Predict the structure.
Amino acid sequence: MKISIITEGNKETGLGHLTRCISLYQAFEERNIIPKIYLNGDSTAFPFLEDINHEFIDWLNNQDELFKKIKNSDAIIVDSYLAPKEFYETISRSTLIPLYLDDNVRLDYPLGIILNGAINAESLPYKKTLSNEYLLGTKYLPIRKEFWEIVDRPLRLDIQNILLTFGGTDKLNLTTRILRLLTRNHPTLKKRIIVTNSFDHISQIEEAKDANTEIINTPSASELLKIMYETDLAICAGGQTLNELARVGIPSIAIAVADNQKSQLAGWVKEKFLQQELTFDLPNLEHRLLLLISNLRKKQVREPISKIGKQKIDGNGAKRVLQFIIDKHVGKSGFYFRNAIAKDATIIFNLSNDRLVRANSINTEPIKWGDHLDWFSGKLLDDNCYFLLAFTPSNQFIGQVRFDINGYYADINISIDKDFRGKGYSKQLIFSASYKLFHDKPNINFINAIIRPNNTPSIKAFTNAGYKLVGKEIINEQEFLLFQLKK
């Protein structure tokens, strides 16, 4: 599967969209499907992109270039506050599976899947047209993989530390404002402050801190999770971090810093995870914060709040979205393809050394592990090798189809795992993989298949897939049949 993810992440827009998209990326990656993120971003995003297949591109102003890059994508995911409706309409025409992340019914979206994982998103006024499918509510909330599995943490009788986190930029400088409030009124509490290099007011934050303040610059997701485990109370914005706090069960006070965060706060208040809806411009905000902190010091108040957050977000949202896309892609065929990657060395080695596979190969000798690794790594680096693995929707390995390209034609090699032989997969894999090759590699005019004369199942499968017997080949003094499929 070719998965393209389009989003933004910079000092102006913040990084919430990027972290959501990374969580979807990680769900695909867990199934060894490697998407590519096309990011309209700046250096603010650098710390989040380690080991992520990505490309920086101002796709809003270079749409023609983007659409060339995402051509032939099996699914295209868009998470943006900036993209106009016309952009989504082009995406809808460019793939069979378009998916749009939305927060507040921003647009009348064209044909595609609309994903809104916010709390109580089911109650938002989507039109629910027949041309769209909807994944709504925290069941489908994508959060980063570090938050998929959590451990229970005991609550202290009284709060001892507070976490302040206001996103990747904090353009409103709420961090300084609230830190000053805390140092004046709660000097004995330990205060952990999350900042990034994109903050414009770090010097002011430094001036506002006291002896019990720790400033942490751009923690990784795993580092942030550790900080959350040690946190009694968080004060945060109303974006993606609020959902991660809820997942860990951290009682929180959230402040909406943009209009699109207000509905999320309203939903969490309705579910009683938050006690109040707050906005950055609310009169007497500091006074309200002090009252909330005072009330949340009590363990009997924080305990049900913690349980609500963990109950509402189970951490499996990104995996559910992935499975929905895979099921939609598979349809009635019962399988999907993905490109071979280095992690597949063992599974291909075992399949290649299967007794029946070796007996029907040109070279019938068993393959040594060292020789296999050299061969396999070479194939992965070879631009003229088109190497596909087939899986069921539940991630069971069916087999492999490999094409070795020689100019305007390709040689096909296929082998099926023993658990899936005799079930009709050979014909389907040959037909689908051959069509995919012609589609993705338009310079290929025909495909050759070399088959042993006594391999009746393969002859039948290739014939049923449209291949024609065109002659014979002598290889290593042995006779083989040559089948061919023309475009």
In short: The mean pLDDT is 95. The first strand starts at residue 3 and ends at 9. The radius of gyration is 27 Å.
